[in-house]
Design a protein that fits this description.
A: mainly alpha, 4 helices, 0% strand, globular, B: alpha/beta, five-stranded mixed beta sheet, 12 strands, elongated
Chain lengths: 76, 285
């Protein structure tokens, strides 16, 4: 699962892969439009629904947070 | 560089607003105006507050329309209000104040598509070109004189959020082009020519009435799906349809190659004229 998430991130936001901080949005690594693309791709690939309440800066602060979000949603 | 404006107020949310805020901050050194930012509609992914904190720009959150209107009406200094991705309608009394000038970015080529959600309507109606307009604000919605316009193409697969992103980039470009002339009050603004059937799009209107009629051409359905696609922003409620007599809500869609067709449940595959399939995932309500 992790590998697939990273593949998607790499496709839409390569910088996110090497980013080691904890606030990608504030630091301009990823923007709200890229988040839309990533969410759309994650939903399709993992056949999950990512509700709007999860689409917040906190869950997109770094790649680990995104992986954790997908992990939670796929386990539901 | 000289301007009589003592203050610039930026109002809005989103990416373009952030960029415009940064630009007006940089240009403070040229003109010496005071700068402040007002957030009228909070956005989950907005970074304008951070930009203000980093740059020492006064930030105020005013979700209440009356509070915002009252605050702006009390401004004494000669003020330029920059409305960027902002849905607050400025009261006529404010617009008519001599010491206040308001410019607004509209996400279409005015006089076409005035009102709300213009990128959605242009995609839904099959437009191949659109753009942005910076205009002076008057008491009528999107009726003011045009300062600058920028245009772009709409691709056959362009979604509303992708078009919005492109338009925001154009808005920033247009703003940088016209900012000096607006500040120096030398901008050559052109009046709009309205057609008798001018339609003002309202926030309550949804392309296709929000319903996917599956008997219609797949191309039209694809346009409708793309026209309301703003990711999770909730600008429009999810589209609905009827599948085998049951009401259903559209979850997501995608154009896929013919050979990628699967056997997933609650999924429609409609043939597109370009040889691909329109895959629509739904949930029965």
């Amino acid at each position: 699962m992790e590998e697939k998430v990273l593949e998607i991130l790499e496709e839409y936001c390569e910088e996110a892969i090497s980013y080691t901080g904890d606030n990608m949005m504030e630091e301009g690594v990823i923007d709200s439009f890229t988040v839309i693309n990533v969410v759309s791709e994650l939903e399709d690939v993992f056949d999950i629904e990512i509700d709007a309440k999860y689409v917040v800066a906190e869950n997109f602060r770094n790649k680990e947070a995104i992986i954790e979000l997908v992990r939670q949603l796929t386990e539901e | 560089m000289r301007t009589d404006f003592e203050k610039v107020v930026v109002i809005g949310y989103g990416k373009a607003t952030g960029e415009i805020l940064k630009y007006t901050d940089v240009r403070r050194t040229d003109y010496g105006y005071d700068l402040e930012f007002i957030e009228h509609e909070p956005h989950a992914l907005s970074v304008t507050r951070q930009i203000c904190e980093e740059r020492g720009i006064p930030f105020a959150s005013m979700p209440d329309r009356r509070e915002l209107g009252g605050y702006l009406a009390r401004m004494e200094e000669k003020t330029l209000i920059v409305s960027a991705s902002n849905n607050f309608l400025f009261p006529a009394a404010l617009v008519e104040r001599e010491q206040v000038t308001i410019i607004n970015f509209h996400n279409a080529l005015l006089p076409d598509y005035p009102g709300r959600n213009a990128p959605s309507w242009v995609i839904y109606q099959g437009g191949e070109r659109t753009g942005i307009t910076w205009h002076y604000v008057t008491a009528g919605v999107d009726e003011g004189n045009i300062i600058v316009q920028k245009s772009c193409e709409i691709g056959p697969d362009t979604k509303a959020y992708e078009l919005t992103q492109r338009l925001m980039d154009l808005a920033c470009e247009g703003f940088r082009e016209c900012f000096d002339s607006v500040l120096q009050e030398t901008a050559e603004a052109k009046p709009q020519r309205f057609s008798p059937d001018r339609k003002l799009y309202r926030s309550t209107e949804i392309p296709g009435g929000g319903f996917l009629h599956l008997e219609e051409e797949p191309e039209k359905l694809y346009r409708l799906l793309r026209s309301v696609d703003y990711g999770k922003s909730g600008i429009f409620p999810p589209l609905q349809t009827e599948v085998e007599g049951a009401r259903a809500e559209i979850l997501r869609y995608r154009k896929i190659a013919l050979e990628k067709r699967g056997e997933e449940a609650d999924t429609l595959y409609l043939p597109l004229a370009d040889g691909n399939l329109l895959k629509i995932k739904y949930r029965v309500l």
